[in-house]
Specification:
Helix content is 29%, strand content 23%. It has helices at 18-21, 44-47, 51-69, 73-81, 104-110, 143-159, 178-190, 202-212, 221-233, 255-265, 378-386, 423-441; strands spanning 123-128, 138-142, 167-170, 193-195, 216-219, 245-249, 268-275, 280-286, 293-295, 300-305, 319-325, 336-342, 344-345, 357-358, 363-364, 369-371, 374-376, 391-402, 405-414, 446-450, 465-467. Bound molecules: adenosine-5'-diphosphate and zinc ion (ZN).
Length: 472
């Protein structure tokens, strides 16, 4: 018997071949909702599942995950400490709150295989995080894990309205970074024509887009802005491209940056959130309505906690995202503290999907800068800058120490023609940017105006902050 009757294929205690059958939806665009409206979905039985059934399935999956976790010495010790020795000890989903958190430090301490819950022979792949904040962490996958991850990504792609008729250019790094292979497998499963361009080599990217009439691409928002500035250099006109959509993620970005990307290219850009500890891309994605990111709740349980007290916060309150895997056989993770800050969005999405939505990620709790005692998030600076039409596509935040005081320097590329103007105009613009930033972050920065293309560009995650203050 399948443990989850709601799932087309379900999955068993070991990797069951039926998991593969679960992900071959015959025609994702031929899905009739109750009201006769056609809503494209990859796996409608799951995506539109009644909440009650979804939560019943979550509880069953959570118990299964506990069973798998108890196979690792790490979780056996952790769970025994709180009196949980058998999966059935968990009476309800709410009881999850009584389980200990898993932190990035735990994953690092368990490196390389302390959290592996199956025999090595059963795993087919490993991925590591990018190591943005220190030593990378490793996640192993069985074939079933890869298949289920692929389905999650396929659901995301179809939810944006993309179809098998699209040409998909994947501009994120292939390799240990999950953005490349993760989206690649999902796009192939949908049946798109995939161009595995990987990151970098902007000239070639534009040629590929032109020659194969790419309609959908995947990139970091910062790279996409850079790509746009390269259009003129490479002598490519926007009209020569067939681009309609972009999937943007892997780094925090503001609504204003999305708006800028959409306007510059004349496309729709959908926010994609993922982290290697939760597979990678395919965790949460915007649907066609762009009203928050649907999180696949049959695969993950999401909690938002107060990072100081660890208490679960009510819907709509901003805090740290904590996630539990529900389907990952090789590396189950319980209450993983992502350090990412966001909130759960209340209400129903017009698309009809029942899986809850998270709001745009503000950044990581450890991204927060303290400038002369004031808390500042780089995303606030980005939001204010990108609202100003004079500002171009790249910027850099630098922190320095002047005596006892912190000094915040914001270097912003501005549009080329503005440099043709006189000194007074530039000085007035500098003052205006500084004033806008002050009202957004309550700190008055020193603003430096830069020419387009003069600040460093990253092919992957952008490095926006340089902290030159001595560490104590
Ligand atoms: P690392 O943690 O070393 O950067 P990952 O490649 O796993 O490694 O990156 C995942 C992280 O990237 C997330 O925890 C989050 O901080 C950031 N991220 C991913 N997608 C988004 C997004 N759409 N918006 C904001 N931040 C994102
Ligand atoms: Zn939706």
């Amino acid at each position: 018997m399948l443990p989850f009757p709601g799932a087309p294929g379900g999955f068993g205690s070991c990797d069951h071949p039926s998991a593969v059958a679960a992900i071959t939806n015959p025609d994702p665009n031929d899905n009739e909702k109750g009201d006769g409206m056609k809503v494209p979905a990859w796996n409608p039985a799951i995506e539109f599942m009644e909440r009650e059934a979804l939560e019943r399935q979550q509880l069953a999956s959570l118990r299964k995950t506990l069973e798998w976790a108890l196979e690792t010495s790490f979780y056996r010790r952790r769970l025994t400490e709180v009196g949980l020795t058998h999966p059935e000890d968990l009476a309800s989903l709410r009881d999850l709150r009584n389980l200990p958190f898993t932190t990035k430090e735990d994953l690092r301490a368990a490196y390389p295989d302390g959290l592996l819950a199956v025999d090595r022979e059963q795993v087919v792949r490993l991925h590591t995080s990018s190591g943005t904040t220190g030593m990378p962490t490793v996640i192993y996958h069985t074939q079933g894990d890869i298949d289920r991850w692929t389905e999650l990504v396929a659901r995301c792609i179809v939810a944006t309205g993309a179809t098998a008729r699209d040409v998909f250019q994947n501009m994120t790094g292939y390799g240990l970074f999950t953005g490349g292979l993760g989206l690649h497998y999902g796009a192939e499963r949908v049946g798109m024509l995939v161009i595995p361009a990987s990151s970098g080599n902007t000239g070639r990217q534009l040629q590929l887009m032109k020659h194969f009439q790419t309609t959908v691409l995947h990139a970091t928002p910062s790279y996409l802005l850079h790509l746009h500035s390269a259009l003129a250099e490479e002598d490519v006109a926007r009209e020569q491209l067939g681009l309609r959509k972009a999937f943007i993620g892997a780094e925090p970005h503001s609504e204003q940056t999305r708006h800028k990307i959409e306007t510059l290219f004349g496309i729709k850009a959908y926010n994609s959130y993922g982290l290697s500890e939760m597979n990678g891309p395919g965790v949460a994605f915007e649907c066609e309505h762009q009203a928050g990111l649907h999180l696949w709740e049959d695969a993950f349980i999401l909690e938002v906690i107060d990072p100081q007290t660890g208490q679960t916060l009510p819907e709509e309150e901003t805090g740290e995202i904590v996630m539990t895997t529900l389907q990952r056989r090789a590396t189950p993770l319980l209450r993983y503290r992502t350090r990412d800050l966001s909130r759960l969005v209340g209400g129903h999405c017009p698309c009809g999907r029942t899986h809850r939505r998270v709001a745009r990620i503000l950044g990581r709790s450890d991204d927060m800068l303290i400038v002369n005692g004031v808390n500042v998030f780089p995303s606030q600076i980005e939001g204010a800058l990108m609202k100003m039409p004079e500002v171009g596509t790249n910027y850099l935040i630098q922190l320095e120490k002047r005596g006892a005081l912190d000094r915040l320097v914001v270097k912003a590329e501005i549009r080329a023609h503005l440099f043709a103007g006189d000194r007074e105009t530039l000085s007035a613009l500098r003052g205006r940017i500084s004033e806008r930033l002050r009202s957004a972050i309550l700190v008055k920065p020193v603003v430096e105006l830069r020419e387009p293309g003069s600040l460093p560009v990253s092919e992957g995650k952008a490095q926006r902050v340089v902290d030159l203050r001595p560490a104590f």
